Amino acid sequence: MADLSINLAGIKSPNPFWVASAPPSNTAYQCHRAFEAGWGGVVWKTIGEPIVNVSSRYSSLDLNGSRMVGLNNIELITDRAPETNFREIRECKDRWPDHAIIASLMTDTRENWHDYMKASADAGADGVELNFGCPHGMCERGMGSAVGQNPDVIETIVGWVMEVAEIPVIVKLTPNITSINHAARAASRAGANAISLINTINSITQVDLDRMCPEPYVAGQSTHGGYCGPAVKPIALNMVQECAADPEVLIPISGIGGISNWKDAAEFIALGSTSVQVCTAIMHYGFRIVEDMIEGLNDYLDGAGMKSVNELIGRAVQSVQRWETLDLNYKRIASIDYDTCIGCNLCYIACEDGAHQAIALVDPEAKGVGLGPGRLPGKPVPEIKEKECVGCNLCALVCPVDACITMIDVDNGKDRMSWSDYQAKVASGEMKPIPAHP
Length: 438
Ligand SMILES: Cc1cc2nc3c(=O)[nH]c(=O)nc-3n(C[C@H](O)[C@H](O)[C@H](O)COP(=O)(O)O)c2cc1C
Ligand code: SF4
Ligand code: SF4
Description:
The chain is of the alpha/beta class and 438 residues long. It is built from 14 helices and 20 strands. An 8-stranded parallel beta barrel has the order 3-4-7-8-9-10-15-16, surrounded by 8 helices. A 4-stranded antiparallel β-sheet has the order 5-6-14-11, with no helix packed on it. A two-stranded antiparallel ribbon has the order 1-2. The N and C termini lie far apart (57 Å). The protein binds flavin mononucleotide and iron/sulfur cluster (2 copies). One iron/sulfur cluster is lined by residues 336, 341-347, 382, 399, 401, 404-405.
């Protein structure tokens, strides 16, 4: 069994799976339930001056029968008093000394930040997370993403916090920004011990066309909400990698955004996260999803010959490079497995109308593949025109049968050549420009 324990900037946790700051981490009761289920850490629901919430608060994007592919919320930080939250953090820490409990904080003045830092340390929190990411409600009051969108303000506030910090400080970043790097660098420059990302993305998920008002509906109005859940994972992975690869950041990362299972988590870790945080998947399925996450990650690490999750951290970061460094001479094409092809011809339509007209429809008898699962007599089957195929992947992506279309490498005998190499060769006269397609 692989060692799943981690140490993120001094915060120790028996595994990398943390409950994100959100409704599932609102009370001691939930914190106990989370740890009983197997979570390694809990980032407490953001503590600040208690607020008043609206009703209703959530809306979602459902896709082809899958519920809550994306979740939108207009909820604010905790509505419980800071003293209550700090008291419950102490209670949880006393009962779970080996688990990570992180106090998420949001306030305004230097004095208030100092007070909250002291209260967090006194409560026994293993660290704090500064919520610079909330995209609604709090930013209008000069907090949340209003801070996270301005690197100078991030630097100032992290500076105030570090003046009194006795425990590790994680800065939670907003994705509602043109370049995440500037925000991450500001946090690092100011002395933060780690960053976490992403918080939610500004969104409107749906409009009620009878009421002419988006959801969530609040007495005839709505507002921009924060988007999260499986749909945001690609955006979060991209930003995590950008921070992990940035030589001006160089502090550990807690990855967040659309993580629902062990594989999502492993991908975040491979792109540079030390811990991962989960909100929507817990709101959807409950704390017990962590059992499969632990088992799955452990099996993966064992299978890959890694003795510890630490060996996985950042392994894939360097494989992401600028476009102009990619090999222009690498070639792959699509290949169809006729033993599993059901003859739906979705691949043909996709390539014909949406890609490169590189699939023909042919007589299965003439091709010698006969009838297959669901293939009717006389119905044509797709055939890849290998010379026309540019290896775009589209047919493999639309094919409804797992692994029926695979992309295979073609040895074209050409040496590696990037766009930068190509430009240099053309400039030096070593090669002529590649002619455009007629
Ligand atoms: C209803 C709701 C409330 C949230 N409240 C907070 C909060 O108080 N503080 C915070 O830092 N993030 C908050 N978040 C953001 C989550 O911590 C997390 O960053 C985001 O949901 C992305 O993770 P996910 O895709 O696993 O949900 C909230 C998210 C949701 C859905
Ligand atoms: S999409 Fe897949 S299953 Fe359908 S015809 Fe093409 S290869 Fe066969
Ligand atoms: S990989 Fe792209 S170009 Fe090649 S057959 Fe599939 S859809 Fe067409």
